[in-house]
Write a structure and sequence with these properties.
This is NOT2/NOT3/NOT5 C-terminal domain-containing protein. Pfam families: NOT2_3_5_C. Keywords: Transcription, Transcription regulation. Belongs to the CNOT2/3/5 family. The chain has 193 residues and is of the alpha+beta class. It has a 4-stranded antiparallel β-sheet. It has 2 domains: 51 residues, no CATH class; 90 residues, CCR4-NOT complex subunit 2/3/5, C-terminal domain (SH3 type barrels, Roll), CATH 2.30.30.1020. The chain has 4 helices and 4 strands; from the N terminus they run ααααββββ.
Amino acid sequence: MSKSPISKKPAENEDFSDLFKMEMMPPAVPQQHISLQNPKKAKNDIQQYNKIIEEDNISREFEQSMKMVPDLPFDFVQYQPEDEKINPDFPKRPAMKLLQPEMFQYYDIYILFYIFYYFPNSPYQYFAAKELKSRGWTFLNESQQWVHLISHVYETTDKDIIGKFEIFDRSPDVWDVVVRNSYSISKQEINKD
């Protein structure tokens, strides 16, 4: 298939302004078409068009709404495992699905305690606390401990609750649930949230 040469070369003074009429312009261009014959008018038209774009509230609202989108906790693009000599069958990126709220119901209490204490001031801490509370655990504000009533309360006073409790001991030596008989808890120390 041979290409035929262009039969006519456009003249330098040829007027192409008909190509830029309003019917052919995109809807964002102002109602009057930009004049190519009068450079001063064209510059004025472009300035008006730019002013309309700058005053557009939709783009400002979009930019403000993007500020409310939370950052990802991990940078997936540059993530590298800390230990380069790991099994090649292990995942190369963190499994973020495991930190989704619907997954917390499947974790045992030790994983929930780990998430609660090692992800402070994060949504993960909130979801771990929510799941622990749904399982009957109570957080004590002053001692920063989680407790769980095992059996009935032995004694209740105006200020204290005495009973058999499971207490999560997060000291470095223990990191385990410890059972305490006749353990006293101050009612003021119990977290209401």
